[in-house]
Amino acid sequence: MPKTSKIAVLDTEISVSTILGEDYICITDMAKAKSDESRAADIIKNWIRTRTTLEFLGTWEKIYNPNFKVVEFDHFKTQAGLPSFVLSPTQWVEKTSAIGIYSKQGRYGGTYAHKDIAFEFGSAISAEFKLYLIKEFQRLKNEENDRQKLDWNLQRTLAKVNYSIHTDAIKEKLIPKKLSAQQISFVYASEADLLNVALFGTTAANWRINNQNLPGNIRDYATLEQLVILSNLESINAVLIRQGLGQTERIQQLNDIAILQMTSLVRSNSIKSLKEK
User: How far is CA 60 from CA 15, 49, 57, 91, 139, in A?
Assistant: First the structure.
């Protein structure tokens, strides 16, 4: 499924869609920087019908598209520049089986072009616009790369942390508080609150009452250690449910597991190193 992001170029919001690792930029959005939205389609049609543009598109397709219909392309090229010649992105794709441009309906709809082609279209807006487009696109890619590196580091660290949890048999003092008999026997309205009580010692509603000046919810203020434990508890709870255990039995086991895992986790060097990054 395509992933869509947004970049802002000279106060114009532009959609960027990633399909199978290739980036396509909405040239309909780009055209709005030159004129109003109602004329965006005309700007694209006027650009695509020129000989210079057709030669660029044809060359790109010959390099990257083995199914490109060269004969149909040559037919368009011979008509380029004639006053009567009209060409739309949809016609270009249908006649030549081009892959560098496509049209999309609905949310984030419009005409999208491969980044190589979109940068070329940027010249039709202005040299300044093209340069800022390239700059903002690169910034987006850098941010995505940074997030991927962080995700990889987090996954690797969590693997180390979980290994530490599973092999650490040392009994430490209780980190989450041991639940009272009243907390254990209480019937909780949701599984989320069951986990909240097992780890945090309170329901989301009670936390909200005691923290009315804070936005968000209890989990928004969880530490990295607590988020790791919470992820583990969710998986363990699902197993306990499938085993047919009731709330009372499950919350006791989950609380015990939270205490044991947190004890091991707070001493983990892997978590400490992740926090320092």
Answer: 22, 16, 5, 17, 25
Task: Write out the DSSP string of 48-68.
Answer: HTSHHHHHHHHHHHHHH-TT-
- What is the 8-class DSSP label of residue 246? -
The answer to whether 31 and 125 have CB atoms below 8 angstroms apart is: yes
C-alpha triplet 217, 223, 224: angle, nearest 5°: 125
Predicted confidence (pLDDT) per residue in 161-187, tens digit:
665 554 444 334 335 666 777 776 666
At 1, is the pLDDT very low, low, confident or very high (cuts 50, 70, 90)? low
Render the burial of 170-195: b for 16+ CB within 10 Å, e for the rest. eeeeebbeebeeebbebebeeebbbb
DSSP 180: P
- What is the rounded distance in angstroms from the CA atom of residue 253 to the CA atom of residue 184? 10
- Only one residue has tokens 């939205």, namely 37
SS3 125: helix
What number of H helices and E strands is found in the chain?
13, 5
Task: Give dist(CA 189, CA 199) in Å, integer.
Answer: 16
DSSP 8-state secondary structure symbol assigned to residue 78: H
pLDDT digits 0-9 by tens, 92-132? 999 999 999 998 876 667 899 999 999 999 988 888 888 88
Residue that is written with structure tokens 């072009």 in the block? 113
* Triad 173, 181, 257: Cα angle to 5°: 40
List of residues 6+ apart from 20 with CB closer than 8 A: none
Structure letter (DSSP) for residue 36: -
pTM to 2 decimals? 0.52
